[in-house]
Q: What sequence folds into this?
């Protein structure tokens, strides 16, 4: 009986071998890929209806769409992000997200911060990296998300990352609604503040170009986008809020207070953050300018083509004269 079973197993093995293209490689398992799987990166957009400066902010309309839809669509275009979802405690936001075909999870109403809401959603995921995109960034660029994610993918010692962009306008630098960040020589955050930091005792451009720089950089604006290793995010949410966090109203200070480092990548994002009714008007104007620019680009190729044809004609004439 044992001999007969063994022969049957061999026959089955031979049948499988010849039945799959006569190739031994089809019977072997594929080696594990060294590439990072897209599903390993999940972007979560925490959204709440209550807002001190702009109640109902996620549902505020920009060009006929709720702002949360703009954020969702912008994040969905980011390369390498395998999944995007909204985490909210409000049924109105849930219905709006489902209405435009987005993925949404309902979280507890008891969370004191967006990070706590993010952590609740992340506990149910198996992602390696979690991207936290604030719901007030309707036009965040895919390249900006990639810039925040890349350092953590390359260096396993980095637990948390974010991004900043130069401030070239003094009024923006002094605006308490604009969060500023100061970094060390390696790109890690020293401090985040609503105050104008660093204090400008001397006229020194913060991009290192020295005093009297023609395009002075007053400081660096922090954008509300974070990347965490999932395990660190869950640890971070368990930390107690720090005094400096409560004073500034900035959750990322909890990490610095606890001795954790945050890598801050510099990007060239033309930032549009919506915190006030005035910002909504700016967002509408931004979209209008963007549409006008795309219209001009759509009209320009024909003009460039005619110019190129004229150049080619001149070159052909010169070549003909030279050969003559």
A:
């Amino acid at each position: 009986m044992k001999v007969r079973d063994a022969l049957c197993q061999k026959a089955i093995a031979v049948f499988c071998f010849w039945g799959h293209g006569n190739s031994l490689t089809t019977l072997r398992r594929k080696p594990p890929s060294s590439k990072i799987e897209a599903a390993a990166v999940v972007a979560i957009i925490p959204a709440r209806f209550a807002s001190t400066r702009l109640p109902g902010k996620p549902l505020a309309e920009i060009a006929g769409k709720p702002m949360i839809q703009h954020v969702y669509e912008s994040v969905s275009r980011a390369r390498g992000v395998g999944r995007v979802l909204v985490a909210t405690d409000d049924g109105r936001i849930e219905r709006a997200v489902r209405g435009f075909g987005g993925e949404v999870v309902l979280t507890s109403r008891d969370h004191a911060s967006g990070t706590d809401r993010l952590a609740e959603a992340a506990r149910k995921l198996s992602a390696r990296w979690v991207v936290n995109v604030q719901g007030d960034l309707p036009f965040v660029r895919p390249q900006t998300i990639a810039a925040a994610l890349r350092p953590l993918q390359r260096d396993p010692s980095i637990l948390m990352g974010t991004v900043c962009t130069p401030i070239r306008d003094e009024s923006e630098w002094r605006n308490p609604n604009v969060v500023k960040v100061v970094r060390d020589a390696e790109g890690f955050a020293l401090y985040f503040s609503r105050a104008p930091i660093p204090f400008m005792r001397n006229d020194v451009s913060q991009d290192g170009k020295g005093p009297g720089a023609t395009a002075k950089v007053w400081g660096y604006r922090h954008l509300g986008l974070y990347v965490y290793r999932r395990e660190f995010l869950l640890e971070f949410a368990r930390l107690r809020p720090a005094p400096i966090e409560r004073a500034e109203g900035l959750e990322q200070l909890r990490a610095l207070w606890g001795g954790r480092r945050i890598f801050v990548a510099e990007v060239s994002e033309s930032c549009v953050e919506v915190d006030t009714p005035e910002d909504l008007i700016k967002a509408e104007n931004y979209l209008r300018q963007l549409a006008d620019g795309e219209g001009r680009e759509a009209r320009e190729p024909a003009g460039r083509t005619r110019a190129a044809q004229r150049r080619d004609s001149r070159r052909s004439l010169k070549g003909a004269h030279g050969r003559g």
